[in-house]
Amino acid sequence: MKEATTEKLQSMTVTAHLLELRKRIMLIVIGIIVCTVALAPFMQLLFDYLSKPLLSSLPQGTQLLSVSVIAPVMGPLKVLLFCAFCISFPFTLFQIWEFFSPGLYKHEKKVVIPFIISSVFMFVLGIAYCYFIVFGFLFKFIASFSPESISFAPDIDSYISFVLHMFLAFGITFEVPVAVILLSALNVVTPTKLKKFRRYLIVIAFLIAAILTPPDITSQLMLALPIIILYEIGVVISYVLFKKKESIKLTTQVAK
Predict the structure, then answer these.
(1) pLDDT category of residue 218 using cuts at 50, 70 and 90
(2) Which residues contact 15 (CB under 8 A, 6 or more apart)?
(3) Residues 127, 213 within the same domain
(4) Whether residue 242 is found in the same domain as residue 116
(5) What is the rounded (10 degree) CA torsion for 53, 57, 59, 62?
(6) Which residue in 40, 122, 245, 252 could disulfide with 174, CB within 3.0 to 4.6 Å?
(7) Which of residues 28 and 156 earns the better pLDDT score?
(8) Angle 221-224-145 (CA atoms, 0-180°, nearest 5)?
């Protein structure tokens, strides 16, 4: 079955691969556009909801500033596009899967499908953690250090850019256990190697946190610690999967 699939892929010309890739990219773009149009009536509501963590940390009646002429339009539009991207993310992964699936073995396909589902879940979980936990503490912490002589009211563009940057940072870093489990399931790494890499992971986690978060130890800890914890979860699950595969292999050998 795999040989037939391989021969089919080899028979496809470069042009055919490019046409297939173009088709998938177009479908991804269409998916984002459809979600954008569907969410357009709620653009202002989405922006208000995204502004809530900051405004709730500021004195009553404080509003975001607009230092650019187009900021009142571009701010909500950025939020709209980001939400459309998140909602269409499963569809995007499915299109990527459709492009690569013909070249995968049957057991590899069984690994990829749970990978897609868990990737979406962990990405959303990372954003939720950032919004409800990190922002709830971070903005209050920043506002409490603002001197009375300074009116702390960020402009729309800088705030939205900061929020979306943080969302992407936490969404991507929450994919750590998924990546660890996938590499283990594909036999790229073993639980022993993952355990040995733990000491380097701690350093890498704090380095990533220092680059992606504001220069305060609290927000850096709130990103670095989840990376370390999620890595450990991935190692534990990888160990369980490894033992299960070893058990199946031993049973098969005994049966023979």
Answers:
(1) confident
(2) none
(3) yes
(4) yes
(5) -30
(6) 122
(7) 28
(8) 25
Asked if residues 68 and 155 have their Cβ atoms less than 8 Å apart, the reply is yes
Q: Which residue carries 């040989």 as its tokens?
A: 3
Report the alpha-carbon distance of residue 87 to residue 54 in Å, rounded.
24
Q: 């009116």: which residue's tokens? A: 151
When pLDDT is averaged across residues 51-76 and rounded to a whole number, the result is: 82
Q: Which domain holds residue 220?
A: 106-256
Helical axes 156-173 vs 198-212, angle rounded to 10° = 170
Looking at residue 41, the DSSP 8-state letter turns out to be G
Q: Are residues 32 and 132 in the same domain?
A: no
The answer to whether residues 39 and 81 touch, using CB atoms and an 8 Å cutoff, is no
Average pLDDT (86-106) is 84
Share of the chain above pLDDT 70, in %: 88
Handedness of CA 139, 142, 145, 150 (dihedral sign): negative
Task: For tokens 């990219």, name the residue.
Answer: 25
Residue type, 136: G
The residue ranges of DSSP E strands in the chain, in sequence order, are: none
Beta-carbon contacts of 179 under 8 Å, excluding residues fewer than 6 positions away, are 234
Q: Are residues 150 and 229 in the same domain?
A: yes
Same domain, 125 and 232: yes
DSSP assignment of 51-120 equals: HHHHHTTSPTT---B--STTHHHHHHHHHHHHHHHHHTHHHHHHHHHHHHGGGS-HHHHHHHHHHHHHHH
pLDDT in tens, 130-158: 999 999 888 887 777 766 666 667 788 88
127 close to 86: Cβ distance less than 8 angstroms = yes
For the chain, what is the largest distance between any 2 Cα atoms, rounded to a whole number of angstroms?
81
